[in-house]
Amino acid sequence: MSSPWRAVYFDLDGTLLDAEARIPPEVFAAIARLKARGIKVAIATGRRATTTIPYAEAIGVDAPCVLFNGAKVVEGDLSTTLFSTTLPRTFTLKVIARVLDLGIHVGAYVDERLLIDTRVPEPRSMIAGAALSAREAVDLLQLERAPVKLLFVDEPERLLELRRILTRERLVPPGAHLVRSNPRFLELLPDGVNKGTALWRCAAHLGIDVREIVCIGDDENDRDMLQAAGLGIAMGHSPESVRDVADRVIGDNSGPSLAAALDDILG
Questions:
Q1: In angstroms, rounded to a whole number, what is the distance separating the alpha carbons of residues 147 and 144?
Q2: Contact, 8 vs 60, CB < 8 A?
Q3: How far apart are alpha carbons 50 and 63 in whole angstroms?
Q4: Alpha helices, DSSP H only, in the chain?
Q5: Which of the four CATH numbers 3.50.50.60, 3.40.50.1000, 3.20.20.80, 3.40.30.10 does domain 7-84+193-265 have?
Q6: Within 13 A of 94's CA, how many CA atoms are on the CB side?
Q7: What pLDDT shows up at residue 128?
Q8: Same CATH topology for 7-84+193-265 and 89-189?
Q9: What is the rounded distance in angstroms from the CA atom of residue 127 to the CA atom of residue 147?
Q10: Beta-sheet pairing, 113-117 with 136-138
Q11: DSSP bridge pairs for 233
């Protein structure tokens, strides 16, 4: 029996990757079965290409991928750009100044460079992805180029308060928006940028209907993607707001639950 699905898009952290930032062997095997049936696989992540390429190569992506939570869409080689945008520079500098004043760690992505500020060089909570990602310490208030996105790293409660402050003080640039990508990650993204709009771009490039795509994710930044897909699958540890929009909720990201869900796709 043929599958109605043409492609599967995976979020990375908390979804395709386990707690040790590895792809479980059961998932590798399930992905191989998908590809053997002609179903394409791709990645939709908040990461940049540099830290996504090892996983893309490991699963053999063969469809456009989503980077920076939708601010960039690239071919499966992760080097050919199909779409990209940035935040407005002037407004962004105002946001950076306020966040640094609050003592919260800021990361500004300029192309493939992750720039952090010398005044708050380390986040209060070291997350595996943030700790291992190559960074350059600079004076962020002297940025000459507009960043693709901003990343704020701190404890969940402090990020909730930061969200309230930036909203209350109207510091979020017109059209830009804040989204959580991890309990300790809050991101500022450009106007109209999310994984959902990026998925439409990927579908158009592939020449398929977005409803022929399966998407799997686990946090607020995956919500639009799960809603846009023909089948949206949320991990069991996802926030309620994400589980509510998913067509299916599965277990954790240790491997067996995701592998079983992928086999279900084959019918």
A1: 9
A2: no
A3: 18
A4: 25-36, 49-59, 89-101, 128-132, 156-168, 195-206, 223-228, 240-243, 256-265
A5: 3.40.50.1000
A6: 11
A7: 45
A8: no
A9: 22
A10: parallel
A11: 216, 248
Q: What is the pTM of this model?
A: 0.93
Q: How confident is the model at residue 129 (pLDDT cuts 50, 70, 90)?
A: very low
Our CA dihedral for 53, 55, 59, 61, rounded to 10 degrees, sits at: -30
User: Cα–Cα distance between 87 and 54 in angstroms, integer?
Assistant: 27
Q: How far apart are CA 174 and CA 234, in angstroms?
A: 30
Mean pLDDT calculated for residue range 211-216: 98
Domain ranges of the chain: 7-84+193-265, 89-189
pLDDT, position 247: 97
Which tokens hold the place of 103? 């003592």
Pairing of the two strands 65-67 and 72-74: antiparallel
Domain 89-189 has CATH 1.10.8.420: no
